[in-house]
Amino acid sequence: MIKTLYTCLFVFFCLFSSAFAQQKFTISGTVRDAATGETLIGATIKIQGAARSFGTSSNAYGFYSLSGTSAEYNLVVSYTGYQPFTKKISLTAATKLNIELGTDKAALQEVVITSSSRKNENISSPQMGLDKLDMKSLDNLPVLFGEKDVLKTIQLLPGVKSGGEGNTGFFVRGGAADQNLILLDEATVYNSSHLLGFFSTFNGDAIKDVSLYKGGMPAQYGGRLSSVLDVKMQDGNNKEFGVEGGIGLIASRIKVEGPIVKDRGSFMISARRTYIDLLLKASSDSSLNSNTLNFYDINAKANYKFDDKNTLFVSGYFGQDNIGIKDLFANDWGNTTATVRLNHVFNDKLFSNTSFIFNKYHYAIELLDADNNARVTSLIRDFNLKEDLQYYSNKHVIRFGVQATHHRIAPSDITTSGNSSFNPLAVENRYGLELAGYLSDEWKLTDKLNILYGVRLSSFSLLGPGTFNTYDSEAEVASSSTSGSGKFVKTYIYPEPRFSASYSLNEENAVKASYNRNTQNIHILTNANTGSPTDQYVMSSNNIKPELADQVAVGYFRNSKDNSFEISGEIYYKWLQNQIDYRDGAELTANANVESELLYGTGRAYGLELYAKKTKGKLTGWISYTLSKTERKFDGINHGSYFPARQDRTHDLSLVGIYNFSPRWTFSANYIYSTGNAVTYPAGKYNVGGLTTYYYTDRNANRMPYTARLDVSATLKAKETKKYQSSWSFGLYNALNRKNPYSIQFRDKKNDPTQTEAVQTSLFGIIPSVTYNFKF
Amino acid sequence: MLKYKYILYSVFSIGTLLSFASCEKVIDVKLNTSASQVVIEGAITDQAGQQTITISESVPYTSSNEYPPVTGAQVLVTDDNNHSWTFTETKPGTYTFASLKAEAGHKYTMKVVARNTTYSATSTMPSLVKMDSLSIKIITFGGDDIKTVETHFKDPADQVNQYRWVLKVNGVQIKTVYADNDRLTNGNEVTNTLFYDDDDNEKLKTGDVAEVEMQCIDKGVFTYWFTLSQQTQNGPGGGVTPGNPPSNIDNGALGYFSVHTTEKKLITIN
């Protein structure tokens, strides 16, 4: 293992040696928005010389670095929606150049949606399986209750399947909902949903950048099998104070931002709260107005630039859901994250970021009946230290770093009082340590061939203290051992190779290929469809092996008409190992021996994703289509042969259109169609215990009816004054009022008990919404 | 019960958001049809008297709920004390023994030969845990008073116990499976609430007479009923993937062989 790593390092440095043969100088700096001072992620920086032209893009903190031989150059910096910046430079010494781009007024007249901020990034970059969401286009898309939502919008992309009607849970390329790594300013968000999944934890106002990696994950990411959703918060305006917000039917939000010290530091605070329960309170029904049903969240961030070399960022998120019925039941859950980061520019080629991250997810359920009272609490908490270094040389961007995460899971604590039926119980805490080191190189081999290759070496250790059991085939304890505090109980080490390559056939066409391996050591146990706030988290252990996924993908990418059309097709195949399912009658809650309830198997997923996008003009939008198959295989389920996973949907189609009718009116619509979920219908019936009981043959061999939905919205910008901008958004969710299937149940007919019937439940019919947004 | 209550209450609370929007309709579904399967339902209780084992067949989903009896089978029950009882067919598919009482702590084996296949199963009689009383609990929700029956009993601290309840209202069985163990309630005065869904059943109202049968069952039988009960719970986002509950009978027969205690109490809803 170590030897492989050294070999890699050696190869890397051999590759560089050629770069040092000539005298070169470096130009470096930060790219920002001229109006707000927000750093621009992924801006294109090109230097054009008489002999050669080359370029790079700004990193997650807006930093860029380019090296060239001593000569006269023309520097061009561009970013979608901004006026390009050009400057003649003579590179005769190391140059520091911070660039501010002004927004392009002409471009603002039209809606620009693009997967990349660089004009033809999807052709030139070796990265595949990456989708970037443009936060501006999010404002115009129709969504349930008019609440714009990052997680619902990514479900309109190829290869991403919705967790269900109105649900923020999502499945990427056949992965399960818990196989997505969801990061908010680098902190893991374990539960990204509010209100049992109808809203996501991401408040669109506070979000600057959203990238979804479906494949070809770069080596700096690890820990989940299927995808990485990297969400970055806004830094806040460092030039002037501003307030913006929105008032919607069921939630309102407000954001305040401004400079701490002009041009040196800024802050941003954004908050949101629903008021469904305030509406309930207005109800005259005494049993309804005492119910609780709300959530709120707060995003806050501040940054301060000490000097050109050092910038500090502090950001945090706090969100909580509360549901409850007076005197009967209370349930709350929420995430807390805090990230402290220090950017340090060692020299004009070496950029470093050090992060210290805390994140926690917790829930509490309280049953309040006198004779059945119990309070169940559970949490998962991480401390995370990351050091990430980026080295920019002529043809290479080398990225390397180390990461350490300490996990604590408190599975269930039950406390009771008085004459409760329940006993107090504390299921032992579990501790784990994840260590990872990575090294990757994005290398422009030739003008046409770019590769991104690297390796991530990840280890997971289950730590004491605790009692660790093994189980026999009957799920009974076979052996038991105890380990002291800090003792390593079990360690798994895996190298995860990552490789992507792109070959540009010409300016407009490219083919790409990628392979990546991912491992996962934090698993969610759920037997509900897309997860509930009270799902159990478990770590890899002496019983649970790390989940493994290997994915290969190939794709063709084409841009045309000056990059105003982007077309792509990708094919992927994914092998999954050590997947988890449950024994019959598994008890997952408050069970110290929950690992005895698990079954292990394999999976495979493959598919074709087609994507066509129009990024410029009055009418913009995209069509995405996915043809896919997702299967799982477990001993003891379905006679040990492959069966469709619940999220297996053969066809998945999304059409999104945004029409910029006039400077004031924008109309948009989206249409989705997807094959029904794989479900298990009865093949026969019989009677036991006086009840009609169903006989099942093959697991998930049937299909729910298909889902189709049209949503429309219109946005009206009010007359702008210099100080105050506002807009109205009107939406219709499920405009055709189609009854889409949510669940199907079988039961005896009420008026004829000798017959059975299938009953489909649909959740949302047509739902209108209106939202008022303002900014000053 | 803990998980069940959680699901139930969260459906109640989130239901306020969804109820105005959701709707139900009966749909046609295309189903596979399988060959009919042998279904054995064997119950031996601690009450001296006639014990019954029924053998029937499953039918395709689209048929009516009438299950053809399997006649001419040989049915034998033995215990771990060299006793044996040969059951006789008193009605097509119904095999009985006139007087038999199962004793706590003893293991019973059922052997059925039907259609040239031998099916066998074992079950152990648990010791009796007495039901103390029944009561009615009223939950007020959404303007409705929801009345439910509660059972009260003292769980013994020194043993692992599993229970099943059968609820009948005015003589009609409620279509819900109730099974629980003492994993979280060992040694306590336990109140168990027998909720049910009024989609499928009539709501409890004043004047109704509810009958509760409480059974103490062994672990294998508990897993059978508990698996069935999980499949009928439908939390937000759907329930457990349905499957055939793990039978304690071998050779692929559906059903179960349960040796259990039985005790019944009545309560009138006021």
Automatic annotation (TrEMBL), chain A:
Subcellular location: Cell outer membrane
The UniProt record lists the keyword Signal: yes
Signal sequence segment: 1-21
Superkingdom of origin organism: Bacteria
Biological processes per GO annotation: siderophore transmembrane transport
A Pfam cross-reference name: Plug
Molecular-function GO term, any one: siderophore uptake transmembrane transporter activity
Topology versus the membrane: Multi-pass membrane protein
Matching InterPro entries: Beta-barrel_TonB, Beta-barrel_TonB_sf, CarboxyPept-like_regulatory, Plug_dom, Plug_dom_sf, TonB-dep_rcpt-like
Gene3D superfamilies: Carboxypeptidase-like, regulatory domain, TonB-dependent receptor, beta-barrel domain, TonB-dependent receptor, plug domain
Domain TonB-dependent receptor-like beta-barrel: from-to ranges: 284-734
Keywords for this protein: Cell outer membrane, Membrane, Receptor, Signal, TonB box, Transmembrane, Transmembrane beta strand, Transport
GO (cellular component) term, any one: cell outer membrane
Domain (TonB-dependent receptor plug) ranges: 148-224
Similarity section: Belongs to the TonB-dependent receptor family.
Full protein name: TonB-dependent Receptor Plug Domain
Organism: Pedobacter hartonius
Lineage summary: Bacteria, Pseudomonadati, Bacteroidota, Sphingobacteriia, Sphingobacteriales
Automatic annotation (TrEMBL), chain B:
Leader sequence residues: 1-21
Recorded superkingdom: Bacteria
UniProt keyword list: Signal
Protein's name in the database: DUF4249 domain-containing protein
